[in-house]
């Protein structure tokens, strides 16, 4: 059983560390960095989102089956596109607030794409970057290991210190293209068990929209996680790991047809104090 993790815009594969650590032992976990992120290749702008789908398809092409794809935001959309490009690549999909939108399919300039171009891109050191990120949203609510992962792979060495691996220009371009890829109109072609997850406090992916997205797929349900926002995997990695474990156990039982995920609500439980960041 292989679990393939696809990260969101601006991040990198190592942000999945606490989810991977919380999985039941025995699963093979695979992460990667998308183009213009982390150690991924640099590609020219503007970028077509299907580049991410093809990249995801290539990353999992030689992995042992069954494969459960777990994608967050942009990564969720990329896994959908990978499955459309090569049907039955995945045995199940867990899509956490995937960036899939109804028509019209066109690039859109909005507050987010404009705002990220002003993002601070250079820091004197990784420690300086950590102090900057840890004190402000969204990073201030992340599991410490997720933040460690971002510091490790979301920054690259620059001429004086470190710089963002995903440049503000590249991040802005990705947001502009989020509404143009058209995967919404083809989601019905996907016939593997699919779970759409969202945070109850998300300002990106309301519960009603999560259910609407699930309805586009052939075999999908939705789950709203209490007291979580768009950054659910980095805030509540144990919730994501439990859901992956449950779905994967079903796939690993040959005598049973994998059950389609049913709508549910999961409360991550009382917040526990996090270790102080160094």
Features:
Rossmann fold, disordered C terminus, seven-stranded parallel sheet, three-stranded antiparallel sheet, alpha/beta, 278 residues
Description:
The chain is α/β, with parallel strands linked by helices. The chain has a domain of 186 residues: Alpha/Beta hydrolase fold, catalytic domain (Rossmann fold, 3-Layer(aba) Sandwich). It is built from 10 helices and 10 strands. The strands form 2 sheets. The chain has a 7-stranded parallel sheet, with helices on both faces. The chain has a 3-stranded antiparallel sheet with strand order 5-7-6. Helix 2 crosses helix 3. The protein is globular, with a radius of gyration of 18 Å. The two termini are 35 Å apart. The C terminus is likely disordered.
Topology:
Layout: E1 2-6, H1 17-22, E2 28-31, H2 50-60, E3 67-72, H3 74-85, E4 92-96, H4 111-115, E5 122-123, H5 126-134, H6 144-153, E6 155-158, E7 161-164, H7 168-177, E8 194-199, H8 207-215, E9 220-225, H9 232-235, H10 237-251, E10 264-266
Parallel strand pairs: 1-2, 1-3, 3-4, 4-8, 8-9, 9-10
Antiparallel strand pairs: 5-7, 6-7
Helix pairs in contact: 2-3, 5-6
Given as residue ranges, the uncertain stretches (5+ residues, pLDDT < 50) are: 253-267, 269-278
- Estimate the strand proportion: 15-25%
Q: Indicate the overall shape.
A: globular
Using only CA atoms, what is the Rg? 18 Å
Terminal residue distance: 35 Å
Number of strands: 10
Q: What share of residues is helical?
A: 25-40%
The largest sheet is: 7 strands, parallel
| Strand line-up of the largest beta sheet | 2-1-3-4-8-9-10
